[in-house]
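DM from R.C. (forwarded with permission)

"hey, sorry to bug you on a friday — could you get me a structure for this? deadline for the figure draft is monday and I only need the backbone to look sensible"
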Amino acid sequence: MIYRALLIKYAEIGIKGQNRYVFEDALCDKVREKLKAVAEGFTCVREQGRIFVSCPEEYDFDEAIAAIKTIFGVWAICPAAVIEDASWDNLTQKVGDFIEAVYPERNFSFKVEARRADKKYPIQSPEICANMGGYLLERFPELTVNVHEPDVKVQVEIRTNAYVFTQTIPGPGGMPVGANGRAMLLLSGGIDSPVAGYMIAKRGVAIDATYFHAPPYTSEQAKQKVVDLAKLISVYTGPIRLHVVNFTDVQLAIIDKCPRDELTIIMRRYMMRIAEHF
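My reply, with the result:
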């Protein structure tokens, strides 16, 4: 497997202040939790605006990417090759080997982007871009340079190790679930409530859900639809505790005793009061 590391980029977490590490640690925990179901041997560390996942020798690449793409807080995933010896001659050789392995057909335009997080590295980022581009052109004459709209961006990050990648796979963004407290979702079979649950979870809020079931006026199929929706949302939010409340007696009492033009708002009021007890 050529991709021995996954570089995870985040956006909003980077603007946090002194408590930024809390959100980074929460995101790391979510990544570890998801990847544990894919394979053993993944390790996750945070370093200077990135989360680095070291991958085992054998793992399902597509499954790992699919798992990370469901984690709120992840802005992008970059599958990368790791270059432990970042000396210039070895770096250029390994980047060339990476391009050769990933792109058997090389009839495309490219540009090189470099990020020198290790400021002790003797070559500055603009020189890395220019010299690396020259090396790749010399090694692969069929390539062309286009710095404005390239077909492929060859990205190199130099830290303790060097990393090279050409893919940037978008994630959902937002904040890691659980970093901003907990809330109760009033879940129904419509479109509004599951979308609301998804959006509030994207802001870092862990959610549980309450569904008000009124047999025989609502069917078992309606309840099952809500259960299925909760399972679908939980792919992104993690486990959801779903409370199913038998609302028939309350609904009949409201219909019997309350003004007809106020039925809906009174029912909603009782739903809120019941949900507050969970």
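R.C.: lifesaver. Residues 220-237 form the longest helix (18 residues).
me: no worries. The longest strand covers residues 76-83.
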